Amino acid sequence: MTQVFIRELQKLLGPSSVLDLPEDVLLYEYDGSVEKGRPDIVAFPRSTADVSRTVALAVQHQMPIVGRGAGTGLSGGALASRGGLIIAFTRMNRILDLDIENQRAVVQPGVVNMDLTRAVEHAGLYFAPDPSSQKSCTIGGNVAENAGGPHTLAYGVTTNHVTALELVLPDGQIVRVGNKQGDSFLYDLPGLLVGSEGTLALITEITVKLSRKAEAVRTLLAIFDTIDDASETVADITARGITPAACEMLDGWTLRTVEDYIHAGFPLDSAAVLLIEVEGITEAVVAQAAAIDEICRIHNAREVRVARDDKERDLLWKGRKNAFGALGRIAAGIYVLDGVIPRSKLPQTLRRIKEIGDQFGFRIGNIFHAGDGNLHPIVLYDPRDTEQFERALKASAEIIRHCVEVGGSLSGEHGIGMEKSELMPLLFSDADFALMRRVHDVMNPTCSLNPGKVFPLNKGCGETRIRPQVPQAMAQT
Amino acid sequence: MTAVTNNITARLGSLGASPRDFADPSDRESYAVDGFVPSAVVKPATAEEAAEIVRFALKEKLALVPVGSRTKLSIGATPVRYDIALDMSAMNQIAHHDPADLTVSVGAGMPLAKLNATLLEHNQFLPLLVPYYSQATIGGTVVSGIDSPLRQAYGTARDFLLGAEFIDGTGAIVKSGGRVVKNVTGYDLHKLLIGSLGTLGVITRLNFRTFPAPLAPRGFLASFSTHEAALKARRKIAESPLSPLTLDVINPRAARIFAERTPITPEPSVFAGEAHATADSSLPLPGEWFHPRDWQLCAAFAGVPEVLDRYSRDLTRAAEQSGAISITTLDDATRPSIWGRLREALALFRESSPFAAILKLNVLPSGHAQAVTILEAVGDSAKLPPALIARASGILYVALLPNSAEDFSPENVALMTQEMISLSHRLEGRASLLFAPPTIKRLLESTLNSHPHADLALMRRVKSAFDPQNIFAPGRLFSNPL
């Protein structure tokens, strides 16, 4: 069966566009998460028509289908949890249209996030969603997971920047939804599709809004002697109605690790720093920066530094965006969590995370989007140690449970994927799942697209769910 | 009909023990949509009661339409069935407000003005300054899909609606999204409710992100003798580093209506430092600001004194460079009467003609000059000169305002709508009908529906997932029965 499918697929796309050797498909077994899932076949279509024909063929052969961009996702969304076919959008990486006057771009899903910004920055424009992986992640992946980033605090996540999509449904049908301007006509189908984690349709073309680069930027680094003071500062900035473009927190332990690697100029003896950025017209930026400086000092900031030039600013951001990589240098495995809380609950939640770390025997670092309450606790663990890995998962679940208890949610920007599907009942009732499932089924009735994601066991497709939670390294020992 | 009515009302009355409020039978007329009068009106006080009524409708195979204050109930296609009006006005509580998190969770029947008054106590607001503001409920505002001039700075409801609780077509209470400002957890089903006209479910609660109330807002008006000049100024501003709160161009006919008419209710005090406006304080006619022969650019901005100075300076320069014939910066005393009219524009247009038909085109800004030229020319030949609002975000409101029913001849209406449809196609947008008298609506619908879009089939599938028995507002979204 599979061999017949591979032959037909090779006929369709050409032999150089299909991988099926175990050593080749092995490379597609991982993404940025702690999960794992090996595909049987990886296909590289070049056009919407290719995708349509590939999908129709795969459904005919009852192959599970998983769309994949750069594989930087952190929840296992792009993994073939049940084997089958991965459709890699690597070769669909063209920018199809740039409309500078109307601030729109039409792109194929494989376009790298940063490449779109590079293509329009000459006109003073950029693509606002800026996940840490923006130099490698694709816009198709951003759409599937409704990706965020530090600057989504002021400018919104991916869904706020998508106005139209071209979809391929499991029967191979190609449908366009939305329009270039963006106000929905009848139902907001792009709003449903963005963040649906590849479970409703494959996306083959995306129309996005481009944002205008601000006239002035000011980046502040506020240094604190206690984590409580830093988190109270964030809560106060929010409560006073100041919306910075970004407001990131790094705790002391994390920033020392980062500093060791990046040399961003983070103070080694502090308990926490806030990296706060304000943008806009010069007059507004001056006023906002002054207000933020004052709030920081009210909450006992030891020092508030202002980046003197672009070089200093870039260095500070380099420290933030490469933090996960820096932590990866000191541990065999890092597990980046993603949870959201009301911003008013920040101080108590950070204390609770510390407690959970102590209870499960982990040092948990915190480096996150404080301004919108989007936490990224980082658990360092040894993936070769099954017991430790299981314990890391338990600590993670405990932190997410706390987020839900204080009125928050399971994921701010990484998505549910395989990682958190079993936690979904913390938030959703059987009736909620029933409706989500009906919506799923009218789009993807055969469960061909990304099975085993988002929905918990018994609520989604099929009865069984393979939990490939044993990391590769450990399986070999 | 009366027998049926009594029958439904009696059977509804026998449901459960919870107290219910049935509107007087003679009041049912006020719930009519396009001549369809519901057989019963029910006012649930809780989500559970609303769910019970939905289950009743399911069992009895009755069509149900959720309603708010009924100011925008006529938006949408002519219904095919309409048995029960579910009046949501009793679900008007703030369920949760976390001022320090800038989030709020409210009952669907909460009046928008009342919600904003509460939020203002914390120096926050919800930037939905929509037509019929003083009556509008939050639920009706969301399902009608109507926008606000403030979208220039804050976006539309889809940008700040965080989650919802609603009754689906199986009678279950369901929820989607959450209460936090950033969330990727399950499908964003609540986004589908925006503009759904009650066809997907009965919204019981909505969660929003709120925004800091703007500091010291100001208004800016500039007049031009041609639309090209006004749109050129709009483009200059849109491409400048400024981010004004509103940025609209209105045509001379719209300016005349603004100059001659006073909104029923004044501008609410949604902004910091402003005394609370009272319901009976009528606004002076701003004849001196709105010029019936000019194209006018209307902008608003806010901030600290240095920021206000910069805006005044830069806006003035952009207007001058585009050939403005007069420029006015509005202070706190005059601004409300301008803003009130911009917010209530669609209501004022409707008041100005008993036959008003209002359409919305979403067309990107670069197409506006061409679109306006065509609309004005065709409007003249069809004896339907339109009042126009051209938002910088790419929305064109087109109000056809005949003086008599005769002007609304089928030929003229067809000419005008055909033109709008082909315009929107050419410019990659869409045309939709908001308000029209029932007879005109049917005429317009037949033209609009002669251009089906491929995604309609997908929408029908979504509708069937939410509402398998098609009990919610059948026919209102897609004119043909599903």
Structure in words:
The complex is a heterodimer of chains A (477) and B (482). Chain A is an alpha+beta fold and 477 residues long. Chain A has 3 domains: 1-213 and 428-477, Uridine Diphospho-n-acetylenolpyruvylglucosamine Reductase, domain 3 (2-Layer Sandwich); 216-320, Alpha-Beta Plaits (2-Layer Sandwich), CATH 3.30.70; 331-405, Alpha-Beta Plaits (2-Layer Sandwich), CATH 3.30.70. Chain A has 16 helices and 20 strands. In chain A, the strands form 5 sheets. Chain A has a 7-stranded antiparallel sheet with strand order 15-12-14-13-18-20-16, sandwiched between helices. In chain A, strands 5-6-10-8-9 form a 5-stranded antiparallel sheet. Chain A has a 4-stranded mixed sheet with strand order 1-2-4-3. In chain A, strand 5 (95-99) and strand 6 form a beta hairpin. Chain A is globular, with a radius of gyration of 22 Å. The relative contact order of chain A is 0.12. Residues 463-477 of chain A have low confidence and may be disordered. In chain B, the strands form 4 sheets. Chain B has an 8-stranded antiparallel sheet with strand order 15-12-14-13-17-18-16-19, with helices on both faces. With 482 residues, chain B is α+β, with helices and mostly antiparallel strands. Helix content of chain B is 34%, strand content 20%. The model of chain B is unreliable at 271-282 (pLDDT under 50). Chain B folds into 4 domains: 2-89, Uridine Diphospho-n-acetylenolpyruvylglucosamine Reductase, domain 2 (2-Layer Sandwich); 91-212, Uridine Diphospho-n-acetylenolpyruvylglucosamine Reductase, domain 3 (2-Layer Sandwich); 218-346, Alpha-Beta Plaits, CATH 3.30.70.3450; 353-448, EIF_2_alpha (Alpha-Beta Plaits), CATH 3.30.70. In chain B, helix 8 runs antiparallel to helix 10 (305-321). Chain B is built from 16 helices and 19 strands. Chain B is globular and about 70 Å long. Classes of the chains: A alpha+beta (477), B alpha+beta (482).
